Amino acid sequence: MSERRHREPLPLGGEDGLPFSKGLLARALIATGVPAEKAYELALTAEADLAAAGGRASSLERLQKLAVGMWGEDEGAQVIRRLRLFSRLDDLDLPIVLLIGGATGTGKSTVATEIAYRLGITRVTSTDFVRQTMRAFFSQDFMPAIHYSSFEAGASQDEDDDDRVLHGFLAQTRNVLVGVRAAIERVMQEGWSMVLEGVHLVPGMVSAEIEGALVVQFVLAIDDVEAHASHFWLRDSASGSARPFERYLDSLGDIREIQDYIVGRAEKAGVPVIENGNIELAIAQAMELVLETLAATQQAADASPR
Prior knowledge:
Blueprint lengths: L21 H10 L4 H18 L6 H12 L1 H16 L7 E7 L5 H12 L4 E3 H9 L28 H27 L3 E4 L16 E8 L3 H14 L6 H6 L1 H18 L3 E3 L3 H25 L3
Parallel strand pairs: 1-3, 1-4, 2-3, 4-5
Helix pairs in contact: 1-2, 3-4, 5-11, 6-7
């Protein structure tokens, strides 16, 4: 079977793990959502503690004592709890499927790439990639909605339709989700983990009930209009104007209408909505969701009759 994920064990030293490394320990802490400054503070303290004791290996129990001494009982214990859960991902005998929804320009691809890296997941794809593939097989006459961007799909609807922006988007979403389900079925057959992001992952329209996988679903949103608009400037610069910001700014009202719809569906379905006003905080909250889902899954497995 292909390797589902690839992550190094915690670098605490000892026979079963990597030699102690403050750099790798800090990286592992950051991966769980600990701010970089605090991650390096704890890693340096652990290195000094190990040197003072004349030892070659530390432990999670010792790290927790150090963390509690630095930040107090609640925060210190929470940091190590995250690290414990993170280390248990190596023992997880299930593929991980992350579903990251949200309107255009909310930072889905950035968050998806970073989360995949932290979890050691090598398969990252988007619903726009699925849509582009489908366009090669289905003509505009046969399936008109997929031949437009999500916020422009209203052009495939009746001009007299006052809600054509949403109706066009939903028509496109229903078509694209056929391909999305096929992609998920394929990775499940292979036992691979995957991060899938895209505007078409509308809660209630795409199922988060995937047997045999640890599924984490959330939606990204940006409340502030100006902050949302600024993302398009950044995308324009990063892509060398391949994605010109004027086009997105001209359609910002339609994009925001779609965002309101997706957020509303998420709230009704009980799917977490992460505000992406700060990318580091958004990534930390996403990692927290992954770890909490893992904890809930393990708790349910422990409680089930053998």
